[in-house]
Amino acid sequence: MLALWLWPVGKGYARTPDKKTARVMMALGHQHFAAKQYAEAIIALKKAYAAWPRHEIQFNIAYSYAQLSDKIAAVTHLRLFLKHATEVQRLGLPPILSYMLKQSAILVVQTSEATASIVVDGRLAGKGQIDKVVEPGKRSVEIRWSDKTVLRKTVEVFPGAKKAWKVSRKTKPKPKPHSTSSRQHLHWAYVVAVSSVAAVVAIAAVGTGLKTWALRSQFDDEPTLALLDQGNRYRITTNVLWGVAGGVAVAAGILAIFTRWRKAKKPTGVTLSPQLGPGSIGLSVSGGWR
Fold it and tell me: 249-265 pLDDT, tens per residue?
């Protein structure tokens, strides 16, 4: 296993590297690794990388995480190594790292706002954009702006593949005044239904009123107790119906005040497109919020 240990070679990066400190930490990390003290080895290796940021050190960090069975951390550092690795180094990956690479997934989320928070599975993953290693499966992704979730989507990522989701903000949100009104939750169909009931009751009241008037005329021509009783019953029914019609009409008016008459706009739009890359395939999802 120690034969796979890579030592940094060649020139440093733009800034002047502290090669002496890096080599001391590399040697210390090597000792911890040989003693199977992998957590200690990782600490020393990260200090070596901070002193001399060579991609070979990232390989050693990834290899140490692999011994701890920390797949996400191992592949995260392995990807940093592969960015600058030679073809020979790529082909010489140990089986454990090759396996972990194939069994992990990459989630990329890009937004047009650098300050937009990206939350993955309930945890803040970054701002503006992320490119991180995740476990394959369904991941819950939220875009938050000004402490409000403006977009939420369940994204499914597959082993050995990359899933990209591009989100653009078309307009910035305007603060809305707080309202306890239920106007946004009522549909115009409620008003139509209640108004229809009021109309039906009113028509019935007109009918019983005409019948009452006819019985009154008949009673004037031929007064009998039977006509008197029947006329009183129709008169009472007419009064009750007019009362009900009036109450329902008032209810329809109140509902009309709390009704949203315009159709709500759809807040998001999503576009899917295939994505190809060296050694992997994926799906790009583009969307936006208003």
Answer: 777 677 667 666 565 55
Return the SS3 of 161.
coil
Domain edges within the chain: 2-10+17-102, 105-173+266-289, 187-257
Fold of 105-173+266-289: Immunoglobulin-like (2.60.40)
Domains 2-10+17-102 and 105-173+266-289 share a fold: no
Beta-sheet strands, E only, within the chain: 105-111, 117-120, 123-127, 129-134, 137-145, 148-157, 162-169, 268-277, 280-289
Mode of pairing for the β-strands spanning 105-111 and 280-289: unpaired
Please say whether the structural domain 2-10+17-102 has been given the CATH code 3.30.450.40: no
C-alpha–C-alpha distance, residues 230 and 216, integer Å? 10
Question: What pLDDT, in 10s, does the model give residues 124-172?
Answer: 999 999 999 999 999 999 999 888 888 999 999 999 999 999 988 664 4
Whole-prediction pTM? 0.57
Q: Which residues of 81-119 are buried (b: 16+ CB within 10 A; e: fewer)?
A: bbeebeeeeeeebeebbeebbeebbbbbbbbebeebbbb
